[in-house]
Amino acid sequence: MTRLRALREDYDLTIRELSNYLHCDYSLYSKYERGEREIPIRYLLDLRKLYGYNLEYILDLTDYSNKLPPKRKKLKNFS
């Protein structure tokens, strides 16, 4: 099982739901999960936002699974 599939299942999403979220074809996303096609960076960035994990974890390059910290608000007029 790939990390892409494991994350999708952990979030109780179907391939159809996730492919709709990414605006891609169902069968194409299925190929990403099976490792038959490389997933484009734009989809990886969307998955990063959805799941909150770093790209290395999503791509199964590391087992370090801590979620990313929430984005910090930018300070206005910082002097």
Automatic annotation (TrEMBL):
It holds the Pfam family HTH_3. Gene3D superfamilies: lambda repressor-like DNA-binding domains (1.10.260.40). InterPro entries: Cro/C1-type_HTH, Lambda_DNA-bd_dom_sf. Residues 4-58 form the HTH cro/C1-type domain. This is HTH cro/C1-type domain-containing protein. It comes from Enterococcus diestrammenae.
